[in-house]
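Action item from last week, closing it out:
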Amino acid sequence: MRLIALYFAVFVQILCVSRLGAQDSVSYQVDPAKPVQTRTGTIVDYNNKILTIKIGDNQRRIPASQVRQVSTRYTTPHLRGDEQLASKNYVGAIKFFREALDQEPRPWVQRVIQASLVQTLRENGNWLDAAKVFASMLSNESECRFFSAIPVPWLPINPNVNRTVAAEKWMGDSDEILALMGCSFLMSTMKREQAIERLQKLKQSKDPRVARIATMQIWRSRMLVADASEVKSWQRKLEKFPEPVRYGGYFVITGAYANNPKLSSTSRDLAAVEAMRIPILFPTQHRLSASALHTAAKLLQTSNPQGAKKILQELAVKFPNTEFGKSAGAQLKK
């Protein structure tokens, strides 16, 4: 829990200052038992392993795992994009993030913008564009901090001819990340079996990032047919994955339990708790969070109707424009 909170503090809440000429600052902690230190200068690069900051004529390399806070300057379109995304105005956010990319000269900040753009495109249903931006981001920085933003669907997505054509091409690509995204897009198409076959190979990838997502996508393919023992094995495996990428696994596990008519009331309550992890721990996953809340309310309907009602109220308020928020609003009116 503390690790994921730290991840999102660094991932989402990079502080900004308004003066374009202001220096950057980095707060980091070498040891949890020691106080946080702060250095001021110019950040040269920041990836998944190292933050490099220039201080005078010298450069200091700080392990990314030690970074607690980064303060820097952002352009106006970048800040406006963040505001629009927070308000779930995805069309407006996309416009501003694209403007910000044109104006931002620093590669490490460009990757921050690209990660936000990927999220926004994904939430707006522009999966193909999101995948292209993500692939571009990783082509410029293989050790990018934002791999967990990879746009692979966990919910069914509407058919799209251009996306399907691109996905079929990517599925056979030697680039495993492209192949992974391509397979995920084909899970609801006539190419489902070929996609699962490729995912089985990607599951054995030497890149653990690819192997983990591929594994959870295979679970996704069995969400409606897996029995309780299989789902429990998924849970055990999921706990060994890095927290930032677990959201897909939590969603699949919750869905598998929700579709099991033999589930006891106690198990349904536990499954509801599992569903609540997504909106709490992964707030940037808007539509997935809405779906998880909807599932949690469904699971609690019999054993805890008041708890279910509170979840539906939260869903209707936070995600009113999703199909799940609209469904919650309709249920509350009955």
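Closing note: Residues 107-123 form the longest helix (17 residues).
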